[in-house]
Specification:
Length: about 425
């Protein structure tokens, strides 16, 4: 009964809050988060200890008739330092937070002057993001790769599934944090309005490039999530466990990492007036992807078009993945992680969910004011494959966590004090800590 109650609470809260992030909904809910943190440990099945480096058996066709396609599933393994001390961090202590690409150039935005500014809700400023990083570092979190939290097992129905581990080896006393960034595309319509334009490798380091109004290109190591995380980990090497940085959830319609990799851009004008050649854009994007993957960043599928997966017909969703596989898989490679566009998930057993499985996805990420990490789906726990909801780091949720959240060290407060993170200097909407 307790499990049922927790799940009902989870579903209710998730319904309230899942639309906040990554979406087109500008009206942030004003409800306070629920009082019950969804239990992760209750739904963690018993799993065998982490095995070595051998890959599991190929995926097989399940009895339900879903045509599973082997996609390269392999257990993620790390090499432990024989001279270091580790502990078994319970999986329930692994946190997960997502944000969007940052508000990079405050002076280009109307964030401080317009109460309806686009930037007020779904993004954080550079200062807010850096304060968050410092806070989670100070609280003993280390960045981990999301693929570290599960291992593949062949289920009783003969299908390969991802199962949460009970615990993960981490440096003694440290807790794992899965940090992800959604929509890392840098849409052309955001050009000149406060975002950077693309991720580049500049002087051997991750940087952003932005075409300024005066015709110059500004290269910066300090204005977007990936370069800032790289710099922070250079300064604090113990913040990155086994080299892990953060997950980049990408969709394809507007390109990848700011490169115009979609066929629809062929022949169009770039920011500097030159003509876009998609083949060249793809080559440039590949170089940056290679650098990112070699340096601990990893990718998740965030849909081809960034449309809520539960609104697709089966035929539409198959077309979505035909395009994804054609345009994106050749750039970023295989990923087992699917980040629901607009935070809307497809229930277990639905045709949409079955198609996601058949495309090789085993880990599903939504958004939530709290967080969830469990095997199965909310209505169908324990069915194998991982379902997660991530805490949301963005303008409207910082206000909500501060004003309505739980200041008791759970929920978002275990990562940081929202009042200390929130950038009152940059924002029109001020937040005042209660007396
Ligand atoms: Zn999104």
């Amino acid at each position: 009964m307790r499990m049922k109650r927790i799940l009902m609470t989870l579903l209710c809260i998730a319904t309230c809050f899942s639309v906040i992030a990554c979406g087109e909904n500008e009206n942030a809910p004003i409800n306070a988060p629920g009082t019950q943190t969804p239990g992760a440990t209750e739904s963690v099945p018993t799993v065998a200890p982490t095995s070595g480096t051998s890959a599991p058996k190929p995926t097989q066709t399940p009895s339900s008739g879903i045509a599973y396609v082997p996609q390269g599933e392999e257990n993620y393994t790390v090499e432990l330092d024989p001279n270091a001390e580790y502990w078994d961090c319970p999986i329930s202590q692994v946190g997960q937070v997502f944000t969007h690409s940052l508000i990079a150039y405050l002076e280009m935005t109307d964030l401080a002057t317009n109460p309806e500014s686009y930037w007020r809700n779904e993004c954080v400023t550079v200062s807010e993001f850096k304060r968050f990083l410092q806070s989670v570092y100070d609280k003993g979190y280390v960045l981990i790769n999301m693929n570290y939290i599960y291992e593949y097992k062949e289920d009783t129905d003969g299908v390969l599934k991802a199962y949460l581990k009970k615990s993960i080896k981490l440096p003694k006393g440290k807790k794992g944090l899965i940090l992800s960034v959604d929509d890392v595309t840098f849409n052309p319509w955001q050009h000149g309005k406060g975002r950077v334009d693309r991720i580049v490798v500049h002087n051997g380091r991750l940087a952003s490039a932005t075409w300024m109004n005066d015709g110059t290109v500004d290269y910066s190591y300090d204005r977007e999530v990936a370069p800032i995380v790289e710099q922070f980990c250079l300064e604090h090497p113990d913040f990155s466990f086994a080299g892990a940085k953060c997950m980049l959830a990408v969709n394809a319609t507007f390109g990848l990492l700011g490169y115009r990799t979609a066929d629809s851009f062929e022949g169009k004008k770039d920011y500097d007036g030159t003509t876009i050649r998609v083949a060249e854009e793809r080559e440039e994007a590949k170089k940056v992807v290679t650098y990112l993957k070699n340096n601990g960043f990893y990718f998740a599928c965030h849909g081809y078009q960034h449309i809520a997966v539960n609104t697709f017909t089966a035929a539409q969703l198959r077309e979505e993945f035909r395009l994804w596989n054609k345009e994106m898989k050749s750039l970023i490679g295989y990923t087992s992680i699917y980040v629901y566009p607009q935070g809307a998930w497809a229930d277990y057993g639905t045709e949409q969910h079955n198609i996601l499985l058949s495309e090789g996805f085993h880990v599903f990420c939504g958004t939530f004011m709290g967080e969830t990490l469990m095997n199965g789906m909310p209505k169908s726990p324990g069915v194998g494959n991982i379902f997660t909801q991530r805490c949301i780091l963005q303008g409207n949720t910082l206000r909500l966590y501060g004003e309505n959240g739980k200041a008791d060290g759970t929920w978002f407060w275990k990562y940081c004090d929202p009042y200390a993170i929130y950038d009152n200097d940059a924002r029109y909407h001020k937040v005042q800590r209660p007396a």
